Amino acid sequence: MANPLRREVRQLYKNLLYLGREYPQGADYFRERLNSAFMKNKDVTDPKEIRKLVDCGEVVIKELGTLYYLREYRTMKKRFYEEELLGLLNIGRPID
């Protein structure tokens, strides 16, 4: 593997490993899957093929970012609507 590509592959692995800490099914599950995906392609030597795989990995990073953003959005939306619903029903408020 060429030196610049090797550095990119290592950086991709580190980024994915970092993002996998908050994966919904657990960090261990994500790490095992990530390791098996990289080990499956460890014998690829063609620079074009390596570049293609790195690009696919970058897409996965974007998808993980979107997954985490949606999780945050759903949590915030749930909190807001719960408070609004409780306010409409006068639940949790003292009666005057």
From TrEMBL:
- Gene Ontology cellular component list: mitochondrion
| Complex 1 LYR protein domain location | 7-55
Any one Gene Ontology BP term: respiratory electron transport chain
Q: Which Pfam families match?
A: Complex1_LYR
Q: Of which family is this protein a member?
A: Belongs to the complex I LYR family.
This chain's protein is named Complex 1 LYR protein domain-containing protein
Source organism of the structure: Oncorhynchus tshawytscha (Chinook salmon)
